[in-house]
Batch of 4 targets.
Target 1
Amino acid sequence: RATATMGDTPEPSPQAPLAVLSKVELRVSCRHLLDRDTLNKSDPCVLLLMQSQGQWMEVDRSEVIKSNLNPVFAKIFTVDYYFEEVQKLRFEVYDSHGHAGVGTHDDDFLGGMECTVGQIVAQKRVTKPLFLKYGKFAGKSTITVISEEISGNNGYVELAFRAKKLDDKDLFSKSDPFLEIYRIDDDRSEQLVYRTEVVKNNLSPIWEPFKVSLNSLCSCEEKRKLRCVVWDYDSRGKHDFIGEFFTTFEEMQKAMGENKVQWDCMNPKYKIKKRNYKNSGVVVLLDLKIHRVYSFLDYIMGGCQIHFTVAIDFTASNGDPRNSCSLHYINPYQPNEYLKALVAVGEICQDYDSDKKFSALGFGARIPPKYEVSHDFAINFNPDNDECEGIQGVVESYQSCLPKIQLYGPTNVAPIISKVARVAADEERTKEASQYFILLILTDGVVTDMADTREAIVRASYLPMSIIIVGVGNADFTDMQILDGDDGILRSPKGEPVLRDIVQFVPFREFKNASPTALAKCVLAEVPKQVVEYYSYKAFPPRCPQPDTPDSNLSSPQ
């Protein structure tokens, strides 16, 4: 970010359009780096690599910080962020040798760390140990990565300023004033936020209203100091200083509605020299309008957890699990389609759930002890706690449950949708954006209870939840497309439309020969939009992030 010099012709800076794609800024620091140099300390530099098709590719590198084992790098790494992908990052720290640049010899390697963009975004701040080759710790070395979204989607503010009775700096005419607003950053440097147009020959100018993002104006911190400067324009670039004042966005907000806020425009030199000096004019904020626009990352970084539930179809049409033709056959060398779909989607979701516990349910089977048909049983057979530890826990519960149940029918999914909806309804009552629910239904056929399912989906569309249905096997899934509202609006049997489209249906066979990431990408691509739509409809802002502690994950849901 370049701070504009006074020689620039004052023209309003163009405002960046709201980005569709999220971009994330990563700031890096290290502590207790290894000392590789004999006479002085290491000169560290960080390389950022991203995995692409199994290969690590260098994305960018930081500056070199001379002789420092606890460097805080000024370089800001910017990466594109996709919720529906696992984006693997690797940070490598090297000791640099002047003109030779950054060597990649083992002697110069100070340590590396791997993580995903999702983990950094969910935790906001990640501190991890650095490792040398072969998994050996690099002494006590650690690396800290802090993330901040820069999509500009955190809202913008519209401001309208005027001034009165400004000092006249021109000999034969009146001043030609313009106003500049600077944000004062934590390191006391100043960043130009906005420069108004010049109003010619006028000591009481009214400037055109303008819009700036809250991120740009005050880094979304209402108490951050702002410096506002009024200049008399000079065509040769030697603008005359009229005066300045300091304020905050918090103070500016008093100008909402009919109120106005005003500041004395002060020239510090005159204040010292002139005994009766009052001011060099007054600047008035006539109007302030806030337009808040939240993004998916705002909610995630505010502590919103994604709670993941998987529901597995155990109806007889899957075939006897002991038979190798069955969709539920456990092949020791090759996961079946149910497991492939579960792992592909679950691996993305687990980065956004701090306790890494997933609810795992089954439907359409006769279950012990009485072998009655159930359409919403816990596959770990614990009715009081259907959660499994991580994706691996779900896989293990699935494999151990198969020999204990009898595959039966029919394919009723409304009970499971309603079960998750009850938990989501409890969450909604908190009136906070703290938990959002994703239900993944894996089924081998068209649902039998279509009317009840449509009713349950319409009800669920008012709650913080999304439903992903993956069709496993070779059945004709044409009727399932009706649940995915892409072709039209899904309605309940009574004709009530869904509030928002929350269902994504995909036949697994379309991804059979593709990588698991392709399936996850397809079914999860809509989720960020669905999360934002729900919380926007409810007018729930993101929660305030909890204070960062170096290794803390997201705060637990309330």
Target 2
Amino acid sequence: KMAAAAGAAAAAGLWSEVNRCGQNGDFARALKSVNKILQINKDDVTALQCKVVCLIQNGTFKEALGVINTHTKVLTSDVIAFEKAYCEYRLNRIESALKTIQSASQQTDKLKELYGQVLYRLERYDDCLAAYRDLIRNSQDEYEEERKTNLSAVVAAQSTWEKVVPEDLGLREATYELCYNSACALIGQGKLNEAMKKLQKAEELCRQSLSEDSDVTEEDIEAELAIIHGQMAYIMQLQGRTEDALQLYNQIIKLKPTDVGLLAVIANNIITINKDQNVFDSKKKVKLTNAEGVEHKLSKKQLQAIEFNKALLAMYTNQADQCRKLSASLQSQSPEHLLPVLIQAAQLCREKQHAKAVGLLQDFADQHPANAAEIKLTMAQLKIAQGSVTKACMILRSIEELQHKPGMVSALVTMYSHEEDIDSAIEVFTQAIQWYQQHQARTNHGCCVFQPKSPVHLSLIREAANFKLKHGRKKEAISDLEELWKQNPKDVHTLAQLISAYSLVDPEKAKVLSKHLPSSDTMSLKVDVDALENSHGATYVRKKAGKLTGDNQQKEQGQGEVKKKKKKKKGKLPKNYDPKVTPDPERWLPMRERSYYRGRKKGKKKDQVGKGTQGSTTTGSSELDASRTASSPPTSPRPGSGAAVSATSNVIPPRHQKPAGAPATKKKQQQKKKKGAKGGW
């Protein structure tokens, strides 16, 4: 009895220690005391519960879950359901946490809070929204603001990932978290300018709330603002301001935030900006997307987008095997998704295997008819790239849901015209017009009632008629024009086209139809001629006539407009022209055809050109020939005869003499002397 009393006293002291440590937040010390209690009584339910709580507070969730699973007989689900589910949630065992919550006999407020978090992580947003609404409606405590923040986060996720138009929850955006979530919802709706304003407001509120705490530094504030700045950069990227977005993304990375999810998203967005450029930077950034725990921080669609970009980056960096491996993995995860097969086809095209790429796309289109349209468009593009325009047309015409679309009709007609297959082009028009005729009809009390033709239908008929007229199919065009005219008998333009077409086939019919044209009086157009002439782009502008007074006005009235005679311009005379000297009558003839031309003496001037430094003499090849005799005349001037050379070299032959009185060209002589002086000593 004394031993039992001593144990009870020791346990009481330990429980007091546990209580005191719990109030002080010293859970490590409290855990030691709890362990001593369990040594006294290993099956003490309260002590085991306290141990689990201490382990959770210390962040050792795995150990806490181990304690729960080891003592299942004592710690039943009714006793420890919340702690077990919370440990599973923090260990990212989300499905297990959901089962634990659902298996609990009593749904406490704590379990409901955790249930909402679990549903959010499982991306079951509709159920999550209902759970938080119920919590907000049935609870009143200091955590109401946090619940509203979580509720707005669910609405933002629905808008972003499920493209659901968010309802107005009537939440007062008094905190930066609420402003941030509201901005995310606006981004999902495509309201980028409004979203940017909300983010700016969120940044302002964040700075205000954090600056009130004296322990918070500027670095802490910037770290908290990183996620807001990340969304701002994303909006800039969506708006095409890639340089601004890139600058802001890099600023966030330099801060080295602890949120691996934020870093992964920013790195992925930088890779999308780089595309096939700056691949070295992209290869560095892709490492941030592989950080531990990223898969638990991001949604499924975010993770999928990152994997797609990894495959594309492998393709751009010529890592064909890696690209195939990643795209095959993506296809196995999402067999119905288009991107994996498109990436594989693109890789095959880079390897010049176009036929294999088309075959791969065809197999996917056969297996997934719902996505066949987009795949077939890609196949047609590949066929056009190979030069097989006719086969591309066949693929496009096999897309039934797009056959009647004006864009598809226009593309097919253009391609068939390029191939000079006019019959097929007209057939495309006919099929599209028939589709509109069939879908225009509606059944009313067993009767088939035709509504007026839609603008698209009428536009197709008009385009078909114009095309047929252009290619000489007048009779076929006439039937289309008659159909148009029946729809709108007041359409003068259609009637004029119809008359023009009949005039080439049936002139009598054209005359009959021309009677339906309005008279010239009714068709008189009120046109301001002056305004038209003065308008921008007018090719002719009539000059405004000046006011005529007196004799000039009478002269104008009597004689009418007289054309002004053009004055002949006096020809320009040469600068050295002398009226006393008779010009050379043969001056207009080429020099070779003139009577006094004697030909040019070859080699004379060439030998007189001095080479080398000033004062030196040039030695001709004849002087270096030893076979020549000493009496042979020199071909270059001697040093003493320099004056004679300069005097005789300026003599102008008679046939090149200018008329008397012409000024001498001293400038040219000076330039020749300067040329010979180049080189220096």
Target 3
Amino acid sequence: AELKKASKRLTCHKRYKIQKKIREHHRKVRKEAKKRGRKKPKKDPGVPGAAPFREELLREAEQRKQRLEELKQKQKLNRQKEQEKKRKLEAKKNAAKIKEKAEEKESSGKSKAKTNKLPDKNSKKSFCRELRKVIDAADVVLEVLDARDPMGCRCPQLEQAVTCSGGDKKLLLVLNKIDLVPKENLEKWLNYLKKEFPTVAFKSATLMKDKTMVRFRRRHARVDLSRTTECFGSKCLLKLLHEHGKTQNKAIQVGIVGFPNVGKSSIINSLKGVRACNVGLTRGVTKSMQIVHIDKQTKVLDSPSIIADPSNNALALALRSIIDTEESGSAEVLEGVDAILNHCSKQQVMLHYSIPDFRNTEEFLTLLAQKRGMLKKGGVPDIENIAKVLLCDWTGAKISYHSQPPGSQRPPPYLTEDKIAEMQECFNLKNLEDENNATVQALKYPSPANSIIFQSAGMTNGTIGENKEIEEESEWEDLEKSKDGEEDDDDDFTETDDDQDDVEEEEEMDVQEVNQIVSRTLALALASLTHDFLFSESERSNSLSFSLDKTADEDDAYDFNTDYV
């Protein structure tokens, strides 16, 4: 039961006693005031009725009052005017500051537009460019797959680019997060994938020590982190890479690629033994190629995530898209959650989240938000945020779900028997199978009843390298070359200006001679007025036509020069 508030009611004896104390206190204060000689100010008695000039005195008093009121009003108006002036000045200052900021933004925008600005690191083009760098530089490419949906993590464009690149470039599949699927399902996937590419079972370490962190000794009890930092499959993978390096007789570069949140950077940290790369639940943490030296013979290249093509279905875009859930719109997130729920068993989802039956996705999110206490003002369920949390759970390592491999082995068209044999040579597949079996036996797995059955949507199309980017890069190079060419042309123009000046001087001399001839013929025509008038007139017309032709050439030469002024 809730405690009631204490009552403010008093007994009559106590109330009367308080009142008596108050009266005594007031009496004491009045006596002290009399002793000090401080008396209350007397009220103005006014003008007596029998006083002479009473009306004049009253009039003067009223006038005095009016003057005082007018003074007060004037002072009040002056104060208001001063306050208005201050406000106007402050408003002008604020407006000037806003204008300055706007002008600065405009000027900076213009300067950015004028200067050749490099593309943003978060843009899709930069991700594709960095990914292409890793693929081209790597001798061995590791395609990282999430063991919960391996087929959905495979990118046909990437596999085709590696297998058809020529040379001795190899492609390996790394099946990560194997501790989140049942044991039987993991064995099925290993048997399916090894028929196409060499596949390594891997469980990366979830908590790594950072070299840059300062170690503090604390007195409280130690927490056993051995289970969380334990890694499985790293020895097998390093052994494979070293064997391939020996066959090549050189230090090899290993590129690690894959879709977001499959554990690319975590695998590098596990191979290195320390936290060499940043990891996180947010998608697209790695934005550029990073080089990590594992040992003298092996160098690992971390890459940005593969960008899922917009033509993929809603499920693939929800789980494999590079766009962060915090930045994406509510409609996209809700569509992604709806696609995930449609590809799962409804009863298993209800058991996992301990939620009653629901009719649609919105009702499911409402029930989940109420259960987890994610409410807005007024107790309204926060559907948008709970949808983002659910997406992060499904791409992270919180939820255990599994998908079944296809019933029949149908390799993609780019994977011919010759290509499969080429990818598998130089690797000891028997030792790889034994190492994978040892890794599978060493781990603990969730039971099939606790793992949600998931229907995979098949391979996810991705954009590895766009022709637009190559064209843009060539355009940047052409622009730089054109700038250099313009500078050279300016030098050429300065050299040819002297020749053009000589030509102009010669043309001016010709024009002067023609003008002299014209003036002479005109003088002879006006002076003689003889029968040779017609003859002189014909000479004049010919000379005029000749002069006009010359002036036209002169104008053309001048226009030609003005193009270079």
Target 4
Amino acid sequence: PSPVSPGLMWLQQGEGGGSLRHTCEQGDGLSRYGWLMHDGENFGVQEIRDGGLFLKTEFVKRPGGEHGGDWSWRVTARMEGTGGPAPLLSLFFYVATDGQGTLEPHLENKSRLAAVTGTSEELGDFTLTFLRPTAENGEDPKYASYNYLDAASPGLHRLTEVVRSSLSNRFVFAPPGKPRRRFFAVDTFRGLPGAVGEPPRGRLLLHQVTLEPSGTVEVTFESGSVADRPGRLAGGALSAALAQHMAAFEQRFEETFGLGRKGFPASQRRFAQAALSDMLGGMGYFHGRSLVQSPLQEHPVPAPEAALFTAVPSRSFFPRGFLWDEGFHQLLLARWDPALSCEVIAHWLDLMNAEGWIPREQILGEEARAKVPPEFLLQHSETANPPTLLLALQRLLPDAPLPYLRRLFPRLRAWYDWYNRTQAGPLPLTFRWRGRDPHPERFLNPKTLASGLDDYPRASHPSPDERHLDLRCWMALASRVLGEVAERLGEPSGPYREMEQALSDNRLLEQLHWAQELGAFADYGNHSSAVALRWQRVVPAAPGRPPPDPQLVREVREAPRPRFVGALGYVSLFPLLLQLLRPDSPRLPTVLATMRNERQLWTPFGLRSLARDSPLYMQRNTQHDPPYWRGPIWVNINYLALRALHGYAGADGPQREQAAELYRELRHNLVANLYRQYTESGFLWEQYNDSTGRGQGCHPFAGWSALVVLVMAEDY
């Protein structure tokens, strides 16, 4: 909860100071960064390209002692493709406390921080040593200037500001026999504006190394409880450990996913390794309180303190836990490291309140809060999110330890009961997402954030009479998985199996959700398809005052009435996606034809989220709300489609060959496009353009887009 945090910042020196890099920010415009190898436990290799600067960060952990052992870090820097003298580079290695722990600096020549000794609750005694830089070969000494900062820390989320406000350009880089150059370095920290009088949260010690690339710097962390250390993990010993771990990673990756056996070339195998590694390298431990609005309370209240160990969708844009994303993340991680996956799922289920509700977005601690617009901080206790963690749990079930499942089961039961109690629909065996946008006049189609498919078109006029197809399918899956868990534990599974049977009944599913006039499965609700956004002039607040800007408001040209919602897209596919349709279902040929129709969902890059001939295809939802789930290609739903097609291709039924053909084409299209976009742009993306295949939205997005690894492996 209050860790000792080491970290790295860098600065390419230039006129006016250049850009200080620290936390992953989309606005930094880096052309590429991400983990190329990371096993989630022992080592990692990351490459960063910032303009002409190439940085490589590598770490190795060596277990031992009673506090996790030692670790070492190597940063290699070089300039690529620049004529003339390379700009100076400053690397800032820091260590900060945040509420507990002590740090003691050890200086050489008053300005070089050679080492830090310290102690903390979870690490015991430790020593951090900053070794002198060398040339890239790791042996020849490298000329560098050193600066040092010792400052009170106002919190980890403000360390960038502390360093930026401490920089001064009064320093001179003076290598023997070469021109002298001024550079910016940490000098004196005089406090942050607006923070006067606030008690410090901890202490920051920072070691700045300024050099002319190329060069290499190593940092070692040595635990005080390690006895019989075989020697410092640096130089040749660090290189040997890295080589050993890299070879083990390659072998384990091939044993787990078999991409070499499947004939993928080395370049595509490296792409898949990077996708997995970037997900593992983005994992984090978060601690804090959610801000919760309950219908039982007038004002929002902070929830109890919570801890969460989780993967995240995007290091730059979504560096926190999202409930429905996490189930997809764990489908991949459960294959790589089942024990790690079990731990993450347990953390998520421990976030449950007494009613059985889990907040859909976890904004825990100041660092997480600093990344979230204020309007999104609040979590509403009647709002659900798809129970995708059950997809991952189903995958882990055959080998999951029984004591683990026994501890999980009461929470799973409470979660399942909460959905049934709070998200029930207007008729028996129907379901309705709660918490749709309460001001329909402001939106072309009020959002349903609870579903995870945010702006996907639903009934135009939210009402208690809605029946949501995707939620009904998720509840069928939940009933199936709870039945399987109960059976493994020898607990009564009857109620779950009965519910699974009722929700999987194809005749009842058609009765409630088959729209004959649309030729598709659909939501049902109070709906008008004749809606549009139009500009409305706003009357001035007082005579003589300038008029406010016009506003986009919704115009309803035909009154809504209870009916099926004409929006063909991902929601229409859910009976297939979660394999509720029987292989001999008379509706299956129509659903498959819809998928393959280029005027509807098929593209050369994957399945689009909303049919091209749908009224709201690529339509903005508000003036400031571009289309999100209204056309672009999303990897998580394409993964579910491939998983389902693979299942139907392997089952006896009249559509077997058609499913197999669709599967082969869709898998080829998705993998080829994600690889091509990664090669061209350097990143996995949040979504992909359905007309060009280009990556769009936020990046890097090694969340569910990393499911491409399982698609390549054909591991469903």
